[in-house]
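Model it.
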Amino acid sequence: ALMYAIQSQCLTTINLLAPVTQVNLGGALRRLTRFKVELMTGEIKQLVERAVQDREAAIHGLEGAALYGSSALIAIIAQYTNDHSIFEANKLKIWK
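Modeled.
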């Protein structure tokens, strides 16, 4: 449901679903960048902060941020992830 809300850019629904969504957080990060959803609103920022605690979700979000040109998401991932090795391990994908 969160994926469809992001795709439709319905902030009301995104803000309702973001705090309770527990699965496919990496996919949510990728869609946030693809559909250019503002990342600094309260619930969305918390979703991003929670998602980047999972290495695979952070990598998925990082790849999406690079693909869709979201320097804001890259900055948030760098700020909130504890595992900065994801940047080194995925630098070839990011730079492509």
